[in-house]
Amino acid sequence: MKKLLIGFALLSFLGTFAFADNNSGKIYSWVDAKGITHYGENPPKDTPSRKLNARTGHSDPVDYETTEKKETKQEDKATASSPSPERCQLARNNLKVLQTSPRVKTTDANGENRYMTPDEMQAQVATMQEIITEECSGQ
Questions:
Q1: Which long-range contacts does 68-76 make (Cβ < 8 Å, 24+ apart)?
Q2: Cα→Cα distances 77→35, 67, 68, 85, 109, Å
Q3: Could you tell me if residue 93 is inside a domain?
Q4: CATH code (residue 90)
Q5: Residue 58, domain member (yes or no)
Q6: Are residues 128 and 88 in the same domain?
Q7: Under 8 Å between Cβ of 39 and 47
Q8: Is residue 36 part of a domain?
Q9: Claim: this prediction has a pTM higher than 0.70
């Protein structure tokens, strides 16, 4: 009995898809006897119609630049170019660690900890020296 009920339920469920409206998502255009253009999902049978290529979905938001945003960007650039004592001190501390420690741990792109290679350490030393030159001017 259970198998019969499950089979009937499954058959009725699948039957709803077989008899569903096949025009869903399709849009047609036609012109009536008065010359008025109509649009719809179900075109009339006695009037010639054409299927339209309707595109659905979302579009990415557009960020229009306003005057306020332009001013904010200019202010950000101005503050970014001014020396930062915190960044200067951090770069000096990092440089000291890189020069005095034989092994330095770092986190890779996968989020796993590993030791830096000697080449990576030298590249970081050069980067820290550049930051110190930029950020520590006048200190």
A1: none
A2: 59, 15, 14, 17, 28
A3: yes
A4: 3.90.1280
A5: no
A6: yes
A7: no
A8: yes
A9: no
Q: How large is the greatest C-alpha to C-alpha distance in the chain, in angstroms?
A: 90
Last residue of a domain, one of 52, 68, 98: 52
Which token pair is 117? 């290679």
Asked if residue 10 is part of any domain, the answer here is no
Q: Which residues contact 51 (CB under 8 A, 6 or more apart)?
A: 26, 27, 28
Backbone angles phi, psi at 33, to 5 degrees: -65, -25
Integer Cα distance of 130 and 91 in angstroms: 9
How many domains, the chain? 2
Count of CB atoms within 10 A of residue 12's CB?
A: 9
| Per-residue pLDDT reduced to its tens digit, 27-52 | 899 998 899 999 888 888 888 899 88
Q: What is the pLDDT of residues 74-109, one digit of tens each?
A: 676 655 556 788 888 999 999 999 999 889 998 888
Residue 96 belongs to what domain range? 83-135
Element of type H or E holding 52: strand 49-52
d(CA 55, CA 72) in angstroms, rounded, equals 37
Partners of 29 in beta bridges: 39, 50
Q: Please give the single-letter amino acid code of residue 70.
A: K
